Amino acid sequence: MFQSLTPLPPDPILGLSIAFKADANPNKIDLGMGVYRDAYGNTPVMSAVKKAEQMILKSQSTKAYVGPVGAVDYNDTIARMVLGDALANQLGKRRMTVQTPGGTGGLRLTADFIRKVNPDATVWVSDPTWANHSPLISAAGLKIQKYPYYNYETHSIRFDEMAECLRKIPKGDLVLLHGCCHNPSGADLSREQWQVIRDLALETEFTVFIDLAYQGLGDGIEEDVNGTRLLAEHLPELLIVSSCSKNFGLYRERTGALTIICQNEGSANTATTLIAAAARANYSMPPDHGASIVQLVMDNQELRSEWKHELAEMRDRINRLRSLLVTRIKEADINDDFSFIEREKGMFSFLGITGDQVQSLINDYSIYLVNSSRINVASINDNNIDYLVSSLAAICDGN
Ligand code: LMR
Q1: Which pLDDT value is given to residue 96?
Q2: Is 363 helix (H, G, I), strand (E, B) or coil?
Q3: Dihedrals phi, psi of 305, to nearest 5 degrees
């Protein structure tokens, strides 16, 4: 049965880490996978997380199952982090949250749920979007279409075209939006643009599905969910998948959640039974460790402020690196304009170079980035910026 299998090409993001590890060049730089890196190139365990972990080790009294929807307290904590207390209270039992194995697990659970509710639904994703959105949604058996999003020439959102496209989306289809720190472009919707999307969703009755993987990495924990909260306040139904991989640095602990807002409590309860069944059929129950850490950090005043402070440092560092990169590129007399990098948010931006230039950075300079020219800004540091900028100058001048 397995004799005639054809191997698949490496994953466009994960494959870069493998190639990077195998590269012997001492100057190599990994701008590929979206993990936060500090000034020394490490992805450290956050101090608040480490402390919570030690407390859990001492006090945990059972490893019994948590159940398909996960821990009730954690679910409430995440809903409050995403929606804020006032809105979470206002939505009451119209809102249900389910713990998931990371953001990806939450996205897959949502896709399975949608497939049950409306097998003919199409999920509309931004052009471009995270490289794993399409495979994941298609694997759940749903159709995919793209709406216009990023203009590679002006480095801004093609909002008129996006709105024009959304206006025609039929009821029953879903529109997947990035809550903040758009991956891969770093170009985020303004408040006015979120308002237009809200009005379009009310008018044409498509369902919005938000992927919120970077809360706190853009402008701030509260600021980054302004658009999400605007929609949650006004739309009758909404799906939000959130992740603690980045903002708590819990990547491998697979810590995420799916929040669903329905028209009334009855629908929310029914939807939860379907979501719980999808979880049970997929992985039975979510892992506990990361969720317990988040719960403890958020419950403990001291750990919570320490976490907020650490997250702010990460965010500020990324924003400083954006400015630094733009300045250093200007100083290197590279003719192309890269100033847009400073206006974008979160871990990623496109360099806006061609596929051939990307391949040259990888093959000739050992600088690893996604083929779309997406870079992880957090991977830049004092030790690699000179090499990065001089390599960029070389490949830009060469064209
Ligand atoms: C990324 O976009 O690089 C991250 O979300 C990691 C991943 O799983 O792709």
Answers
A1: 98
A2: helix
A3: -70, -35
